[in-house]
Write a structure and sequence with these properties.
This protein is of the alpha+beta class. It has seven helices and eight strands. The strands form three sheets. It has a three-stranded antiparallel beta sheet with strand order 1-2-3, with helices on both faces. Strands 4-5-6 form a three-stranded antiparallel beta sheet. A two-stranded antiparallel ribbon has the order 7-8.
C-alpha cells in the first residue's frame, strides 16, 4: 500500500463507514467482498482505486483477557474476494498473534515509563535500592546504594560480608535479626545503621525493606 492509504486510514473511529471502522464498532470481523459495490464505502473509493484493491477483510485486535481494543488487522485484495472458512481461521490466528505482540509492546512501554519515574524519584530522594537473598546470602544493590557504602558501581551481587565489614558489628547483628524476623512473619523492616565507607566519614543510613515471596 502507498502513503496515501496509510495517511487516509491512520486514525479511524467506530462511526466511520470503512471496513475497519465498522469492525471496531461491531467488535467483530467485517468482510467487504467488493468495495465498489458497497454503498457505505463510497467516501473511501478514491483511495481504494488508487491503491488498487477491491476486497477487504478487517479483524479487530483485542487484548487477551480484557477485550480492550488494540488495533485492526486488514487484508486487501486486488479483485473482489470472499475468503473461505480455512482462510478465515488463518486470519483469526494471525490476529491473535498480532494482538499479543501489541499488548507486549504496550506493556514494555509502560514498564519503561514506570522505571523512569522510579529512577527520578530515587535520585530526588537520594535513595538507593537493594535486594537481599536469604538463601544465597547475596546482596544486589543499585549504583546509589553501593555509593552509600563507598563501593564502586558493579552489576554482580555481593556477599553479605562485603557490606557487613563496613558496618558496626552490633548494628549489623540487630539488622540481620530483624530481616530474618521479617522473612519469618512477612513483615516490613525499618532501622538506622552507621556505615564506615573506606576513605570517607561516618554515615547514617535509614533502611526500609519488605519481604518478597520466593
Amino acid at each position: 500500500v502507498g502513503q496515501e492509504f496509510l495517511e487516509h486510514f491512520a486514525c479511524v473511529d467506530a462511526d466511520d463507514t470503512c471496513a475497519c471502522g465498522t469492525a471496531l464498532k461491531l467488535g467483530q470481523r467485517v468482510i467487504i467482498e467488493d468495495v465498489a459495490e458497497y454503498a457505505r464505502f463510497a467516501p473511501h473509493l478514491g483511495v481504494a482505486s488508487r491503491t488498487g484493491y477491491r476486497g477487504v477483510n478487517s479483524t479487530p485486535l483485542t487484548e487477551r483477557g480484557t477485550g480492550l481494543p488494540l488495533g485492526m488487522l486488514s487484508t486487501l485484495f486486488r479483485e473482489p474476494y470472499l475468503p473461505d472458512e480455512e482462510r478465515l481461521q488463518l486470519s483469526d490466528v494471525l490476529a491473535a498473534h498480532a494482538a499479543d505482540l501489541v499488548s507486549c509492546h504496550r506493556a514494555q512501554l509502560k514498564l519503561r515509563e514506570s522505571e523512569e519515574f522510579l529512577r527520578l524519584a530515587l535520585e530526588g530522594g537520594r535513595m538507593g535500592t537493594w535486594e537481599w537473598d536469604s538463601e544465597t546470602h547475596l546482596i544486589k544493590g543499585d549504583a546509589a546504594h553501593q555509593a552509600w557504602f563507598g563501593m564502586p558501581p558493579q552489576d554482580r551481587p555481593m556477599p553479605n560480608e562485603a557490606y557487613w565489614e563496613l558496618m558496626d558489628p552490633e548494628e549489623e547483628e540487630i539488622g540481620t535479626k530483624r530481616a530474618e524476623d521479617a522473612l519469618d512473619h512477612g513483615k516490613d523492616i525499618q532501622l538506622e545503621l552507621r556505615v564506615y565507607p573506606p576513605n570517607a566519614n561516618l554515615r547514617w543510613i535509614a533502611v526500609r525493606g519488605r519481604t518478597r515471596p520466593g
